[in-house]
Amino acid sequence: MRAPASDLPLTLVEAQIVAREVAILDRVTLTITAGSPTILIGPNGSGKTTLLRVAMGLIPLSSGRITWGGRETSAPTKAAITFQRPTMLRRTALANVRYALAAAGTPREKRQERAAELLTLVGLAELGGRPARRLSGGEQQRLALARALARDPTVLFLDEPTASLDPHATKAIEDIVRAVSARGVKVVMSTHDLGQAKRLAGDVVLLHRGRLIENAHPAEFFATPRTDEARKFIAGELLV
């Protein structure tokens, strides 16, 4: 689970998504490098989810381009994504991970052992036999992370994975993010939680109305924001 040097950086150049004459992403240029997590913040409708989906290859650009390690591609094979409300298959937690491993091309004889390893990594080793849809919201998010990691990704995109979780479940997700990052996987994660951004970020990206407003180290971003939008967002004021 270590990012090959050739797969990064991930670079978006003048990336734009236009729907009904509205720019959902507005000429975003951003380089994501290996290392600590990149945390996307911004109000609802700022473009965080769209940026993640574009980078994952789930939405085609209206204009601009994306490169992985200098190569243009719209469908990276060494990337994975989880969503705010993950869908659980009608089977056990362990079988959910085995299914993800099969989809990733893991040999059949290795799936059981690898699935157990991934459940242990996300703290669900004791719940492998439980139906996935009977897990709590936090447990389902951890299971979604295990399934994503079955792809052995270079980059792991997380779309607000703790948005509806209590503090205990949130800490569990944050611990997994740290553990995965320490293994060399680049995490790119969106959140509304500024405290979470401070705890996890190697760099912070602020989006507003589809535009990239600031991209900085968290200490710099929170102590000396360069734009009015960033100062207002940090202060909890409404961005218009």
Write structural notes for this entry.
By secondary structure, this protein is an alpha/beta fold. The protein has two domains: 1-78 and 154-240, Rossmann fold; 88-152, no CATH class. Helix content is 35%, strand content 25%. The protein contains eight helices and ten strands. It has helices spanning 48-56, 93-103, 108-121, 137-149, 167-182, 194-200, 218-223, 228-234; strands spanning 10-19, 22-32, 38-41, 63-68, 71-72, 79-82, 155-159, 186-190, 203-208, 211-216. Strands 6-7-8-3-9-10 form a six-stranded mixed beta sheet, with helices on both faces. Strand 7, helix 5 and strand 8 form a beta-alpha-beta unit. Helix 2 crosses helix 3 (108-121). The longest helix is centred in the C-terminal third of the chain and has 16 residues, at 167-182. It is globular, with a radius of gyration of 18 Å. The protein starts with 9 loop residues before the first strand and ends in a 6-residue tail after the last helix.
Which terms summarize this structure?
single chain, 240 residues, alpha/beta, Rossmann fold, 6-stranded mixed beta sheet, 4-stranded antiparallel beta sheet, 8 helices, 10 strands
